[in-house]
Amino acid sequence: MRHHIATATIAAALFAGAAAHAQPAAGYTGPSVGARPAATAQHGSYSGPSSVPLMTVKQLLETGQDDQHARLQGRIVSHDGGDKYTFADDSGRITVEIDDDRFPAGQSIGAEQRVELFGEFDKGLRKREFEVDRITVN
Q: Where does the record locate the signal sequence feature (predicted)?
């Protein structure tokens, strides 16, 4: 009997942990594989001009170098679990990594809303993704 209770407890804990990873950040309201958590703390950011080049997804994927800083303009079209999202512009799609605290405080971002992402291209042998440092709503 104790074995059945212990197994059920472990299964419940694993399920709860998996559900926590499926939740999108508090600032994203578009398609997702899970429910949204509570809002995150307030934070500020720089909003002036930038010398970081504006690129399309296609340009970044074809010519981007590992650790290259870039800006992308388009839409976050889906939450793919944990801190992974799909970003799209007119030229293509790319997986982006967005920590909860990178979403603008007090603003929700839907799948149809245009945004600008500032971040760094992560180019490896098997993956190409964009690690987001800051999001601004267009």
A: 1-22
